[in-house]
Amino acid sequence: MFVPRGCRVKLLPKQKRNRGRATSVSPHCLRNPLAWGLYPLAMGSINRSFNKKRRNILPPVPKHLKTSADRTGKDYRELHEWIDDPDITIKAQRHDITKIYEYGAIFEEKYGKEGVQEYIAHIHDDIHTKFNHILRDFEKAMTDALIYFGVKKENM
């Protein structure tokens, strides 16, 4: 039987036990879901909601074209379409931050320093967008878990 550290459990006499399980736990332990190891539960619900709702949360190519045009006056369409390839596995490889030097050299040769800056800005924008979505999903999952276990009241 799992009992969080610092929590007390009362056992009934042997003949009244329910298959050897505790019958009551100190109240302060019931009010603290984190003491019961609910952090992994919250993370699991984040992953489930993230995978169901937001498969493609990165900015689309037209948004990258607009931000490039605002920054430099050029849209760098070929660069953005190359990075955001329709094939998901290729797209993931091209967003790999460990290959920034390798891909950066290609873009510097083709577009100059400004092209490298746009490549890095594209990766930065995608990372920023993705982590903001993950953070929102995490906060919602934690709130849902705390409401479920009665630690937090539901806003009506």
Q: How is the largest sheet built, in terms of strand order? A: 1-2
Q: Mean pLDDT across all residues, rounded?
A: 78
Q: List the secondary-structure elements in sequence, H or E.
A: EEHHHHHHH
Total count of strands = 2
Largest sheet: 2 strands, antiparallel
C-alpha Rg (nearest Å): 25 Å
Total domains: 2
The level of helicity is 55-70%
Distance between the termini: 37 Å
Structural class by secondary-structure content: mainly alpha
Which overall shape is indicated by the principal axes computed on the Cα atoms?
elongated
Strand content: under 5%
In terms of per-residue confidence, which ranges show pLDDT below 50 for 5 or more consecutive residues? Answer: 33-52
* Count of helical stretches: 7
